[in-house]
Amino acid sequence: MKVNETIRMIKEGRMDSLLIQLYGEEKLTDSRERCRMVLDGYGKTFGTEEDVLLFSSPGRTEISGNHTDHNHGKVLAGSINLDCLGVAAKNASCQVRIVSETYGQDFTIDLNHLEPSAKKAGTADLVKGILKGFEESGCSVGGFNAYVTSNVISAAGVSSSASFEMLLCSMLNVFFNEGRMDTVAYAHIGKYAENHYWDKASGLLDQMACAVGGLITIDFCEPAVPVVEKIDFDFASQGHSLIIVQTGKGHADLSADYSAVPEEMKRVAAFFGKEVLAQISEEDVIAHLPEIRKAAGDRSVLRALHFFEENKRVEAEVQALKDGRFQDFLANITASGNSSWKWLQNCFTNSNYQEQGITVALALTELFIAEKQKGACRVHGGGFAGVIMAMLPNEIVDEYIAYIEKAMGEGSAYRMSIRPYGAICMNDFA
């Protein structure tokens, strides 16, 4: 379908059902216009005579399972109604050209030269990594043009880079692999790209949540083949919204803080001759507590205990959702946040303890929730600086946003919802 024909399809409402599911009914007019604009952008850049397809890949939110995946634990995550939206078409060449409206980028990659740059950084290297990952996986690649826009907030723990990676995987799967690939393959290719082309020690959580879509639980006990279960739960029916609050960028270098979390957990596992905590039990740790405290340190012990209890919470939350016990689900969200704050200790960095944006935002949100007697909150993502999550009834969301932005700054709070689809070709739903 040509660009102008696709624009006409959008205007006639033939994609409205999907747009409502992806972005919400209240965003229907805006989402139609956004699709038209990205199609128009493609047409102005590449011409209007090619057959094009529309693609969408969401950002993600971590609902529970804070810092568990790297020790082969369990997580609960969801795709959100912020996404990378792209128009693409095959170009019968050995070149991939990508134009990013959001970041003002326009670059071309030769499929015969997929080696990373010396810096191993930036979008072009990431795209090369995705293409090379397809080749290494025995999948086909080819030349195509893509025009992409994104409203996935960067540096907010909602995986803007993974969203982009999964968008490209969807394009390559549809264009050159007859749609045969599954979303687990997408995630492994995204991980490969970040590991080898960015030198970033990423796991699979971000990519899996963006690729699969909806509300999912992942067990990383066997990380090469994680067990993924999609939870059939209508989040919108509960009348709650998910709010992400940016608390300010930390000024300290946090790489050591992030690295210390898995390292200290693995130090406890090493006491038993194992590599990760999933290979031992909480009972083992408690039974040998004096020796482990001496060998690994007290914070390592506390972080290990967080890991075991957080895994149980993920299981409890999943079961509560399956049983329709939404208040029990929220109670476990609160418990997860408390554990991250007290046991995992990733809400501020000891290297700059006077800078505590996350804990200030959490304290204010807890005061708000205590007054309203409704809702839950927790640190979101890696922690130490950055972002918190609140889950609140819709009728008090506007009040909360005004309240928290007065303290944390205008535009710091983002209202989101869980969408049912991951990385998709939108034309399949028209």
From TrEMBL:
GO cellular component, one term: cytosol
Keywords: ATP-binding, Kinase, Nucleotide-binding, Transferase
Coiled coil (UniProt feature): none
Molecular function (Gene Ontology), one example: ATP binding
SUPFAM superfamilies for the chain: GHMP Kinase, C-terminal domain, Ribosomal protein S5 domain 2-like
Superkingdom as given in the UniProt entry: Bacteria
Residue ranges constituting the Galactokinase N-terminal domain according to the UniProt record: 42-89
Domain GHMP kinase N-terminal: 126-214
Any GO BP: galactose metabolic process
InterPro entries: Galactokinase, GalKase_N, GHMP_kinase_C_sf, GHMP_kinase_N_dom, Mevalonate/galactokinase, Ribosomal_Su5_D2-typ_SF, Ribsml_uS5_D2-typ_fold_subgr
Recorded family membership: Belongs to the GHMP kinase family. GalK subfamily.
PANTHER family for the chain: GALACTOKINASE-RELATED, MEVALONATE KINASE/GALACTOKINASE
Protein name per its UniProtKB record: Galactokinase
Source species of the chain: Candidatus Enterocloster excrementipullorum
